[in-house]
Fold this sequence. Notes:
mainly beta, Immunoglobulin-like, 2 domains, lysosome, transmembrane helix, Arrestin_C-like, Arrestin domain-containing protein 3, repeat
Amino acid sequence: MVLGKVKSLTISFDCLSNRNIPVYSSGDIVSGRIGLEVTGEIRVKALKINARGHAKVRWSESRNAGSNTAYTQNYTEEVEYFNHKDVLVGHARDDDNSEEGLHTIHSGRHEYAFSFELPQIPLATSFEGKHGSVRYWVKAELHRPWLLPVKLKKEFTVFEHIDINTPSLLSPQAGTKEKTLCCWLCTSGPISLSAKIERKGYIPGESIQIFAEIENCSSRMVVPKATIYQTQAFYAKGKMKEVRQLVANLRGESLSSGKTETWNGKQLKIPPVSPSILDCSIIRVEYSLMVYVDIPGAVDLFLNLPLVIGTIPLHPFGTRTSSVSSQGSMDMNWLGLTLPERLEAPPSYAEVVTGENRQSGLAPVTAFDDFQRALQGPLFAYIQEFRFLPPPLYSEVSPPSSPTDHHFDQRTSKLQQSRLIKSQQGDKVFTLVFTLLFFLILSLCLSLSFFSLICVLG
């Protein structure tokens, strides 16, 4: 008897969105079918499936172990959410290649149903980042005697609901800052910045209305700007690796000395991005709106307003006036969009935060691979596979080596703080010495003038 061959092995899911993307949440039943097409009769030991979901991070750092000695330190961490196994045909034993207990599959196409329940725990949203990912998949394996198994893996999307209608995400975010520019002994007037947004939670596609007032009492020309940043944080072995990405930005009018600019709901649209990831112990994805004043030749004046990108839109009968361009439902046509062309690039994150008692010293790195998870569901969020044009701006942070539960607005670098304090102390000492020398020279000149006057009169 001539044995047949496996022509195709496929995996299909029953629960599909309107764009043929399998999307689930914790507690959902994932069901589908394994398709097997064979030419001729084959004998198999087993047809198995293995469904898994996990978050994983990995990065490497170079270390100096002394003179002319260096080594690479690897950091890895993994969180497993579930690991489901099932046998659809045959038996689970695969310890021998005997002819006993084999199952015969006849020529043609066959389908085998499978199903399993996602655990009733918070599952991190599917995500692809520079140093880590959150992935969910189903793998099918066809085992035959004396042959290598035929394997196929297909991923599906999971996202955790974030309802922006919760009170904490409906609360306004606001702040005020002021900065006085100094040049030697001369001090110009202050530059003041006040900014407010109507709430903390938004969904992709919404436009954030920014209310701000910028007053320039200095002698310099300044420019008000606003930027949305995404921060990816990866944790492993008590260390943290951070990547910041520019998402969207806008620019106001240049302000000359003595001028004031007011933003009455200036809009900054959120492009298709991943929802915030806040419940994963090794990967966090956070967002912030930075409203700042670009000051030539000085550290910029900025305000950081935290954002949460959610999945459940604002209700039409919300408690506040919405800034949503299309309110109440998710526009699934955005799945084909890419990020808008970048306007004038804002300063790097390192330039903005230097000297403001925040993390600094961010070095630019190359852009990582495209986001590759497509999230979607009825009235919920999505992430469409898209390319950043042009590439996003990245910078990396290597914070102090201590296991902490870092938060975005609380992370600071002791080394950078030390350098900053020393720099400030040095500036103060220099100013003091310069002032003393100035008064010493002035006193000497007055003494000489007085002595000359006495000589003339005498």
